[in-house]
Amino acid sequence: MSFSVNAAEKGIIRGKVIEEVGALPIPYAAVSLYEGTNEQTLSITQSDENGFFKIGNLKVGTYRVKVSYVGYTNLFVNEIIITEKDFDKNLGNLKLASEQSNLNEVVITAQKPLVEFGADVITYNVGSSVLAEGSTATDVLKNVPMVQVDIDGNATISGKRSTRVFIDGKPSDYMTSNIADLLNVLPSDAIEKIEVMTNPPSKYSGDGEGILNIVMKKGFKVGFNGNIGINAGLQGNTNTNAFASYRGKNFNINGGGAYRQNIGKGNSESYRTNIFPDTTFYYNQFNNNRNENEGGNFRVGFDWDITPKQSLRLSTNYNVNSTNSLSGNDFYYLNEEQIATRLRNQQNLGDGNSNNFVFNADYNLQTDTIGGKMTIGVTINTNSNNDFRSYNRTYAFPVNLNPSLQQNDNQTGNDGLTFNLDYDKPVFKKRDQLEFGLAYNYRKNDNDLLVQNFNYQTQEYITNQKLTNKFFYNENILSGYASYNYRKGGWGLKGGVRAEYTNVNFDLSTGSSYNVKPYLSAFPSVSINRFFKKRYNFGTTYSVRINRPRENTLNPQVNNADTLNISYGNPDLSPSYTHQMDVSFGAFGLKWSFTPRISYSTSSGVIERYRIVNPNGISESTFDNVGTNQSFALMLIGNFRPTNKISTNGNFSVIQSKYSSSLNSSLNRDGLSLRGSLGISMQLPYKTAFESNLNYANNITAQGRNKGSVNSSFGARKSFFKNTLSVRISTQDPFGRKNNNSFNQGLNFISQSYSTNNSSNVNFSLNYRFTKVKVNKVVIPPAPKQ
Fold it and tell me: Which residue range or ranges hold the Outer membrane protein beta-barrel domain (predicted)?
């Protein structure tokens, strides 16, 4: 006869055992399995030579795992629940600490904490966040510790002027001409975690003072599984997304898609005092805007374990965005007596669309039996962006001034190729780790700007030759790096150096050509960590970073959307170099951690935007190597888990910055920047969870200050039907709309600006998770005749 073995009797628990410092695999570690709270061992297995283990043939139930190895502290993983719907549990990387670095046994649960604090990286586990469900990467980043997202969707790390966004360890700014557009449609349900690196190791590009690395979900459960979600808000925003994955014996196929609609509303006002030797006059400006955005993100991935020593991963990602905008501006000209002498009204219409396609291929080869691994990666991307805007300017008074009508058609193309070859190998009986590699990045950017003014006499548009231009940018970067990681007796020392050869050239259709002399840069990095007294660690890092000027700062095309406040790039910019050092101290308990950090950096040739006002009152804004900057920061980062159901985290930073400039005496300033955030997440009875976050920022700039702003969010989620269906309600800024205030001061002007947007919102979302596991049929032969 034959029968089907119940899927629940084929439950699997798998994972990888690694060292907490250095992340090297631990072979032959003992993995003991317990059922429920039973102290009797159910089974014992060992991790293989690469640290992997797998326990199969498990029934439905609750389990716990104990991992142990000589010289390391025992680690428990509790509350591993196997159900008929979810019977393949991947515990991920299980980090064992040396006996000198921990007080006693480490106990964790299968549910990862929302925030993990390491000596050189902060990890935000998106899957553990209630607020992340049904949102996008932009929304998630707003709640990541030490990260700030501005009104345009650009994310930066606290205290860093230049932050780069990576996706799966590869720079996303090589993949698109507008990172904010990419993050605005990337669904949070496709993201596994976000890593914040203030001092990136040599393996990463030397560009940028800090890196945000977004790690995407790959899909790992056996069989077919996925999720479908929908989110809607009272402000008119909607977001739908789906993800599915199928894993066979030696391959995995996963894919997903998302579509988002969003309505943005806001208003702002600014007041500028123009100070000249013979007169003082004033410009007051009042604006309102409405934007409607919609976009989609679609991705497909394929992982293939060719042999036990070879694997191939392919992935594609396609983004599409479209925007319609309408805004109005009122400009008041006031004389020295503050009497309005002129009022100009301007209506702005915008219509834009963009699309971006990225293809990634990564080949991994295990080169020996002790863990040596080589990785070859290729990334190809192409992006196009079309932006059409019109500006209709009329005068309420005096009536003798003529109206004007202008339209700008801006088309941008962005193509790139990235190649990397990495090799890492354990040495000296796997005590140490050696890494080295090569990389090549090619970037091409074409920007075609057509400006036309309407001729009221001939009733036709005439090309404005002064503003119309084409900008062509080419960038080639060849890199090589090597690093060595030494560990012994609670000490960890990692040193490395990265060298980058940069060749950049760009030109304009007007005939101007700029060939930047190729230059070679070296970026050393050193980190030292020491665990002692079984519950403390001390760490220090040092690195050199570079901020390269790119097309957004180099392009001299003039933007006169606001004729009183024009802006343009500076083709004569030079790279800026930063030396930065962190000193951190960590104290860890069973339910808490506290990791204060002191950071110091000094930068030369700092690239920042600055503004001058001409005698005619027109403000010109551009970029320049404004001078030097010294920054000293104190960061307090902590986590407290009073129970295994409640987790709180917080961070607070005070940053003292000092600018020195020979370019403009108004840039010689210093001051404090303050940033902080608090968060709490709770697992409540009846399968309910709650989470809230509060963020504050007040930052100094080279020419002023972005004054204090506060944003908050709250969310609650309840699960049904064995956790397959979840319902969530969340609110953003329930106490009022987010305000942004800024102050700028130059040699002959003082400016203050205030703006608000429709950040106050209530969102409702539904998410359904499904799993379909293949059932193995076993045929039992009939019993022999007696």
Answer: 367-768
